[in-house]
Amino acid sequence: MSLRGRTLPIQVGSVVIGGSEDVVIQSMTNTKTDDSESTLHQMKSLAKEGAGLIRVAVPDKSAVESLPFLVRESPVPIVADIHFDYRLALESITAGVAKIRINPGNIGSQEHVKQILQSAKKHGVAIRIGLNTGSVGRVKNRGRYAMKLLGEYIDFFEAQSFHQIVISLKSSDILTTIKMNESCARKYAYPLHLGVTEAGIGQTAVISSAVGIGALLLKGLGSTLRVSIAGDPLTEIPVCKEILRATGLYHVGVKLVACPTCGRTQVDIEALANEVKEKTAHLRESLTIAVMGCVVNGPGEAQEADFGICGGKNEGLLFARGKIVRKVPQDKLVDHLLVLIAETIGVTK
Amino acid sequence: MSLRGRTLPIQVGSVVIGGSEDVVIQSMTNTKTDDSESTLHQMKSLAKEGAGLIRVAVPDKSAVESLPFLVRESPVPIVADIHFDYRLALESITAGVAKIRINPGNIGSQEHVKQILQSAKKHGVAIRIGLNTGSVGRVKNRGRYAMKLLGEYIDFFEAQSFHQIVISLKSSDILTTIKMNESCARKYAYPLHLGVTEAGIGQTAVISSAVGIGALLLKGLGSTLRVSIAGDPLTEIPVCKEILRATGLYHVGVKLVACPTCGRTQVDIEALANEVKEKTAHLRESLTIAVMGCVVNGPGEAQEADFGICGGKNEGLLFARGKIVRKVPQDKLVDHLLVLIAETIGVTK
């Protein structure tokens, strides 16, 4: 069993993080939380795209005032992100959020943290201890220092009999992030929230998140994840899904494998693959479809694929599990593929 | 020392793969190789973008005929990709390529492989043994079977006193790819060429490559890599660079860290980060620049960054190594940043 499977299952509203549950995809709104209509609108879009849990920033009292409405209307549980002011944490808890995210080191005195723990316990609210090497202060080995702080926080939480804990340990340096999470998983049974902080913009953010989060998931760590991309949070969800799919943890819908085009290819693989992707986007079944450029090698190379097509000069091949089904004219390849899939899985378009 | 650092350094024309050398970025042309002008044009673009080694498909005699011209004109060493016909391998070697990529299992009889090894040895040409689980035939555990075949090939190569070997082991399944490469590195000292085969299209290909190749690089494996993306091979190079950067193996130019926007952010981080990225793209110095959205936390959180800016409502902050340099008007942030960088590193724009 992976380390992930041995973590404590933590109830977060209707969602469970940890234990044998699927890895939960999270996102965070970038609207002003006190603009409750815009925030709810974005939450609904994120949930529709696949977010199982959504975090909102609660920087002040007016953000808190939006929470009861958001909690009532949101399709998924809400996490309140709180810094510096323990009263915002207390008020978010009574407003009905399912989880709060705090850094116990910047939320106030031990007495204040104790009040938060008591209230969270009473209301069944989970707490993510969010540690970021960026916020531990000016020390030499920030990764090691963050781990020392984490130990102190967990001791304190447990001394208050509080165990509904999720932990995140982040750094803009991926190697540090990996080390901290490994060290945490060896020591504590609380589930891990994975992320790479300050990941960059656009493709840089996608790649650094895929490398960092992917490496941890492959080590069997992490029960929930968020990919941070500056800009529209909706773009984060497909990236989460692809990272989970690449690490064997997501199985919904079509996995497309396409051979890289090379000098041997006689068709436009990219166009063909895009067409297949588009026309199979409605399928929820876990299927692997291969789009290959080489009639000689294609069916054999892609024998793990459930279905596949090979483009040839005028005539292509339709195959399933490595076996050729039939030859078809090149321009009818995708149509034949869709019919074959529909016939096999019993889905009509 | 990483396993990578303990591999044999393999000479490939003017490039060395393995040992203590930097990880070499590769790509592959998707032009018809017999169209030598188009192929050369693409090779030059790929080399300019950062490819250190370029593979071309050699599917037939007319492709071989382009090779002397390409070898003479190419800015980087050439790898000939050959399947099925050992004579194409022999002819590519005498045409002057620096390396050939073959699967010894599909190139002909042992006698033919022996001829290839003798000629490659005579001409100082390296050989990549390329094994893809897709091409090992219809067996049950294709990963394990591929490793058995690899052992036989290496024994045969070594029996002919041929050691100028690079190895690639690929599968469209990332977990299998990782296992095979780890097992290979434990057993053999030859450098590894990393890749994920049939990685998909667009963002799927980028993410599955980042996860698979990234995980191996983080394990200290891999001396050269190629990211396979269906479509224009030029898009592969920046992805290779970002994967290497994320794993701490690439240090040229600006690493941009941007905090993810959230409800606390008061500026458009994405636009600001894009502007910084664009305006620092000419720098070759290894610099980390942070673009943060929060004047309270920004400078501290990004203290590892060499330079940074924090956007505020009307006024932003300029900082360096976590220390505030000065407040500047929001709309002059990037200008001030560029001047500060130029003054510090002594580069004028």
The helix fraction of chain A, in percent, is 25-40%
Give the number of DSSP strands of chain A: 15
> What is the total number of structural domains of chain A?
2
Ends apart, CA distance between termini of chain A = 39 Å
Radius of gyration of chain A: 23 Å
- In the predicted model, the low-confidence regions of chain A spanning at least 5 consecutive residues are none
Classified in CATH, the superfamily of the largest domain in chain A is Dihydropteroate synthase-like
Q: Name the structural class of chain A.
A: alpha/beta
Largest pleated sheet of chain A: 8 strands, parallel, barrel
CATH topology of the largest domain in chain A: TIM Barrel
Under the CATH scheme, the architecture of the largest domain in chain A is Alpha-Beta Barrel
Which geometry of chain A do the CA atoms define? elongated
Task: Please write the string of helix (H) and strand (E) elements of chain A.
Answer: EEEHEHEHEHEHEHEHEHEHEHEEEH
Percentage of residues in strands of chain A? 15-25%
